């Protein structure tokens, strides 16, 4: 398998590349792309780690060489969130970057599984979908918004609060909705047992929703969530790899198209297969507090989705003229 990381020299890209070098199956190929000149140095640095994963770095104006033959593409490229900045504020900076990179994916590896990490994910996945549609290669099964960070945070918070001796079993707490602010809805009701009163459940949800801002504030302007994000991306990538190699029964949460009547894109539990999403799974039944949180956030989620779609539809003709 060949895995390409676009934005490999950045705050998420470097630790993600390190984790991939350490954990990908023997014989895998890791292609690292970033416009930053240091990218080749990152690749050389990683190549000194004695694992049977080949690493090569690519830089320059486009990622075509890195993308040729890629099975999985991970995209953490873009600017990070700063104190006082909402994920939605990132849109005007990152939408053009994602639009450009996904055009290269459409041309060089149209059958690859693409996992977007770049924020705001709620809008970036619709941007990518529109670009792939215009290129004539869109397959909803193959495009993911990576929301695993919200899942691992939910697992970690639950463990620290109630089960300090062991983390909950991976995948027990699905997170649905989106990947920004109040669109993040962890379903702690899936744990079973006593959840507390409505206020306690609402506070659990709020803690996960606020977690990214807590990291940004704690880093005092020096960055956003990079290390936990890199771990989450590794976890999701390994699940994609296992499914692509034919392993059955692999379930992850991801922000994908389809499966929800009230929003064209929605983070939900999916069963993975060789071609990406094999089945979107129901997350019912859930607690009334969780359902109310989903109902309340849907208008905002749909607005973020529409922003991404409109961006591409308005700019694509201009983009084609400039690219010529």
Automatic annotation (TrEMBL):
GO terms for molecular function: L-malate dehydrogenase (NAD+) activity. The keyword NAD applies. Its EC number is 1.1.1.37. Residues 147-311 form the Lactate/malate dehydrogenase C-terminal domain. It comes from the Bacteria. Coiled coil: none annotated. It catalyses: (S)-malate + NAD(+) = oxaloacetate + NADH + H(+). Residues 1-145 form the Lactate/malate dehydrogenase N-terminal domain. Keywords: NAD, Oxidoreductase, Tricarboxylic acid cycle. Homodimer. Catalyzes the reversible oxidation of malate to oxaloacetate. Belongs to the LDH/MDH superfamily. MDH type 1 family. This is Malate dehydrogenase. It comes from Pseudaeromonas sharmana. The lineage of its organism: Bacteria, Pseudomonadati, Pseudomonadota, Gammaproteobacteria, Aeromonadales.
